[in-house]
Design brief:
The structure holds 2 protein chains of 2 kinds. By secondary structure, chain A is α/β, with parallel strands linked by helices. Chain A has 4 domains: about 90 residues, Beta-grasp domain (Ubiquitin-like (UB roll)); about 70 residues, Roll (Ubiquitin-like (UB roll)); about 140 residues, Nucleotidyltransferase, domain 5, CATH 3.30.420; about 280 residues, no CATH class. Chain A is about 30% helix and about 25% strand. Chain A is built from 17 helices and 29 strands. The two termini of chain B are about 30 Å apart. Chain B is globular. Chain B is built from 11 helices and 10 strands. The chains are: A alpha/beta, B alpha/beta. The structure holds FE2/S2 (inorganic) cluster.
Chain lengths: ~625, ~325
């Protein structure tokens, strides 16, 4: 079999003919960007074939002269040497740390998913000759009104020594279970903090926060599964591609990401990994499957069912998370294959299920989920919007990082600002929303999102491709221009169209309209500087009084945090998941029609957006 | 017991669009065509107004009858080489309008220049007094070069020019505005896409009342049902007051019939289908009649015999 060598990494793999260079790079563990998932569309996987011949497949995107798209080059019988330039290399793995409000000093609070308690046991005597374990349980039963405790065999073996070592005043660590409590440790006081962590596994970004006395940081990084494709579907496809290897790849990646984030956080707080006794994880259904190593492929096949939505707590040993090996991992529950734990967490965090009047929660993440409800009912659906508003799959897209353009203004000259005022590195979700609104208002593109030939900033790439030059390379201080391509615009319009249409379908089936909603809460990690008017101008959000639109940030992480701090929140997510009615849009007769009419700026029916179109 | 009144009243009306300009109106046409104006669903004479019967255009092509089926060609043998004579013949056959297709400008054909195309338009205008519909090549770049020349050549004649599409509408809209023509807006079989295109055209200055819509066309047995329901849906919305769908509808049937094997295959090849002479025009006229029943107001045909059949049928049933 031919060898493929990647430079400058200097790594070689043997692959069968017929494998693409992109795939070979994955196997060699050389990450190459592939925002379009290897379909020859995004043009991010540019490489140079330095030695040997490959077969080139046609692509929508034409690489620069002398360069090739890794996803379009197929290995034939020959050995090849591939040079991966810096721009293509960085599937960004850096961890970003952000300051947030500190937690209260006393941690963990009573009632958290993992608790610590100091007990004073009466030592055994001839009159009171209960066994060690039962003695411990008897005390615990008095401590909390709770009958059921379980102690693992591993713990039992050490228990007699530990209790005596503690001179019958042990420190006990317990975790919650539906049937009672699990004893994780009983022994002499460790003299160390006990902390928990909340983790949000997004398709694009993984975020973690430590729950420790005074901890005030959120760490985030790209989900490194991204190298296998930008969305859940391409990840699932990867699982099928290589059977065992495929989903082991994905599981290892995401576990690695979480370990990296926790490692950073623990180090920053002067703690140790073994101080972390519990992790509450939230994420969409596919991400939960991949994290736990559950086979996800039926999620994408009709009738779209996952392996499990209501998950038991699991041992970190079984998952590979590097926290205290006796700790527990709590996965929040999903509702369906496309409405996941991130959404139940969001409902918890926003209090949607406790509201008196109906409101909506819209998650602008990769799936674009929408929940409408109040304390009497909850309905939800997924718009399959794609990662456009997370900066994924766009030519110059970026997560909401320092340097990401997050706000754009029109006028004589289109101007912009970046997060933290840093030199621009790309455009994040809110930047895209503004940019579309501004280009529309300035007449640089029309209401279908097609660029106007000859408009300022619009340049012609070839006969039928136009693109908008947003920030030139010189101005941006980087190697290439920051641009908005026609494909980007089409993607963004499809994403916003899907979200608006999904919301409409949901509301119509309830006999409601957007104006019946008390609040429209927008969640997502797409930047905090959402300009509501612009979001309405492009028809992403309905034209309702602006004060009803709220930006609620990353509610997936917030929900995980709440559930970790207070086990009643954890149980509540299960009730929420059980009580939500899921609408499958792919078979909904009205969705396609709604979608087509929403794929326009702001919408095909101008009366729906009176403040934008002047119609009414 | 009294029979209850089941008449429906709608808030919307289909736009009336006039094509062609006589000498009083600054043109040289001897007749004009007005379509639209209906106030209810098609053919329900007891409850709605139908001020204008559907209009029929016969197609003539700058590329001749190359590729047209025999039953069409047999009528055109003498005139196909001469656009003027062809147009005059169509007038004789009873067409209300001429549809001039600029096929020869298509790069796959001879790639006729914009000026030559403009001359073709002029020749047809001279040869007939009927109003004119000019149909481009469906190649955006070619249309953008050719159509402005043609709108100019026909300035004052109030023609209908097509087609404007979502991906290519600016040039044709601008040149129709400059030379005072109507715009034929084509969007594939979806009322939302039609609405979107009408908004785009309005945004560049074309009045909603100066558009005719083409939801694309399928022949009987070959996608007609899709277009039929699209037209119906559009009509329901239009009559309920949606101004973005109140444009009259054109369907281009002759060209589609040319792709239908059952309609074009000669009797020797498929004897089980019977006489080609009967079959070919019947397929075309039956398609046309069905479309009128869906609400279409302007029908483009190729075969003069189909025109005769369709007109006779419509006259006998038009409310
Ligand atoms: S073009 Fe190769 S991965 Fe997108």
């Amino acid at each position: 079999m031919p060898n493929v060598t990647f430079q400058p990494a200097g790594r070689t793999v043997e692959v069968a003919p017929g494998v693409t260079v992109l795939e070979a790079a994955r196997r060699a563990d050389v990450p190459i960007r592939n925002e379009c998932g290897g379909h020859g569309v995004c043009g991010r996987c540019v490489v140079e074939i330095r030695r040997g011949e490959v077969e080139r497949r046609p692509a929508r995107h034409t690489p620069p002269a002398g360069k090739d798209l890794a996803c379009r080059c197929v290995i034939t019988g020959q050995d090849v040497e591939v040079f991966v330039p810096a721009e293509s290399r960085q599937v960004e793995t850096e961890v970003t740390i952000r300051q947030v409000e500190a937690l209260p000093q006393a941690f963990p609070p009573a009632g958290a998913v993992v608790e610590k308690v100091s007990l004073q046991l009466a030592p055994p005597s001839l009159d009171d000759n209960l066994a060690d374990a039962e003695r411990l349980v008897r005390k615990l039963q008095k401590w909390r009104e709770e009958d059921n405790y379980s102690i693992s065999l591993r713990l039992l073996r050490d228990l007699p020594l530990e209790l005596r070592h503690a001179e019958w005043n042990p420190e006990v660590i317990l975790s919650v279970e539906p049937w009672g409590r699990r004893v994780l440790r009983a022994g002499p006081p460790r003299g160390r903090a006990l902390c928990l962590a909340a983790v949000d596994v997004g398709t694009t970004t993984v975020k973690a926060r430590l729950l420790a006395p005074g901890a005030h940081r959120v760490a985030s990084c790209y989900n490194s599964q991204t190298m296998f494709g930008p969305d859940v579907i391409s990840r699932i496809v990867h699982c099928q591609r290589d059977e065992e290897q495929g989903y082991a790849d994905l599981q290892l990646r995401v576990v690695g990401d979480i370990n990296r984030l926790l490692g950073e956080l623990v180090r920053e707080s002067g703690l140790e990994r073994s101080d972390v006794w519990g992790v509450v994880v939230s994420g969409n259904t596919t991400m939960m499957h991949l994290l736990l190593g559950m086979y996800p492929i039926w999620i994408r096949r009709e009738p779209y069912v996952g392996c499990a939505y209501l998950l038991p707590s699991v041992s970190p040993r079984d998952v590979g998370l590097k926290i205290n090996p006796e700790g527990r991992i709590f996965c929040l529950p999903s509702v369906s294959s496309y409405v996941g734990a991130d959404i139940t967490a969001g409902v918890l965090a926003t209090g949607l299920a406790d509201r008196e009047k109906p409101s909506a929660l819209i998650d602008l993440g990769t799936n674009g989920e929408i929940v409408v409800g109040c304390r009497d009912f909850l309905v939800c659906c997924s718009a399959s919007a794609g990662p456009a508003f997370e900066g994924g799959a766009s030519a110059s897209g970026s997560r909401a990082l320092p340097g990401a353009i997050d706000s754009v203004c029109g006028g004589e000259r289109v101007s912009w600002e970046t997060i933290g005022g840093a030199a621009p590195v790309g455009i994040c979700g809110t930047g895209y929303i503004d940019l579309l609104a501004v280009l529309l208002k300035e007449g640089i593109m029309d209401k279908t999102g097609k660029f106007a030939p000859g408009a300022p900033g619009v340049r012609r790439l070839d006969d039928d491709t136009l693109e908008y030059l947003f920030v030139s390379a010189e101005e941006a201080g980087r190697d290439d221009d920051i641009v908005l391509t026609q494909a980007d615009v089409d993607n963004l319009i499809r994403a916003k169209g899907a979200i608006y249409a999904a919301g409409n379908v949901l509301l119509e089936s309830l006999g409601m309209t957007w104006s019946d909603l008390e609040a429209i809460m927008l969640a997502g990690g797409f930047g905090e500087r959402l300009n509501k008017d612009n979001a309405v101008t492009i028809g992403l959000l309905p034209d309702v009084p602006r004060e009803r639109i709220e930006f609620v940030g990353n509610t997936s992480l917030a929900g995980a945090l709440m559930a970790a701090q207070d086990a009643t929140g954890y149980w509540r997510t299960r009730e929420i998941a059980r009580s939500m009615t899921y609408f499958e849009l792919s078979t909904h007769p009205g969705f396609m029609d709604q979608f087509v009419s929403a794929c326009f700026l702001p919408h095909t029916d101008p009366e729906r957006f009176p403040t934008v179109t002047g119609a009414g | 017991m009294a029979v209850p009144d089941v008449k429906e009243n709608f808030s919307g009306t289909i736009n009336e669009v006039t094509i062609g300009a006589t000498s009083e109106e600054g043109g040289t046409r001897t007749s004009t065509v007005t379509i639209g104006g209906e106030t209810g669903y098609p053919m329900l004479g007891f409850e709605a107004e139908y001020p204008h019967p559907p209009a029929f255009a016969l197609e003539i092509s700058t590329a001749g009858v190359e590729g047209w089926h025999d039953e069409c060609r047999k009528h055109l043998a003498d005139v196909a080489g001469d656009l003027g004579a062809w147009a005059a013949k169509c007038e004789e056959w009873g067409a209300d309008m001429i549809c001039l297709c600029l096929d020869a400008a298509h790069p796959d054909n001879e790639g006729r220049s914009p000026q030559q195309c403009a001359d073709d338009v002029k020749r047809v205008l001279e040869a007939t007094g009927l109003p004119l519909l000019v149909w481009g090549t469906d190649v955006d770049e070619v249309d953008n070069n050719v159509l402005p020349k043609c709108t100019q050549a026909a300035a004052g004649e109030n023609c209908l020019f097509g087609t404007a599409k979502e991906d290519n509408y600016r040039t044709i809209a601008a040149s129709c505005l400059a030379d005072n023509h109507k715009v034929l807006a084509e969007a594939p079989s979806d009322i939302n896409l039609s609405k979107q295109l009408h908004i785009l055209l309005r945004d560049v200055g074309v009045d909603l009342a100066d558009m005719v819509m083409h939801p694309t066309t399928g022949a009987l047995g070959f996608g007609m049902v899709y277009i039929y329901t699209t037209i119906e849906r559009g009509r329901i919305a239009a009559l309920s007051g949606d101004r973005l769908l109140q444009q009259p509808v054109l369907v281009n049937i002759g060209k589609e019939i040319g792709r239908v094997k059952e309609a074009v295959s000669p009797a020797q090849a498929d004897p089980q289908w019977g006489s080609h002479e009967v079959r070919a025009p019947l397929w075309e006229s039956a398609s046309a009649i069905s479309y009128v029943e869906s609400g279409a107001e302007l029908l483009v045909l190729r075969n003069p015999e189909a025109l005769r059949q369709a007109k006779t049928a419509i006259e006998s049933m038009w409310p």
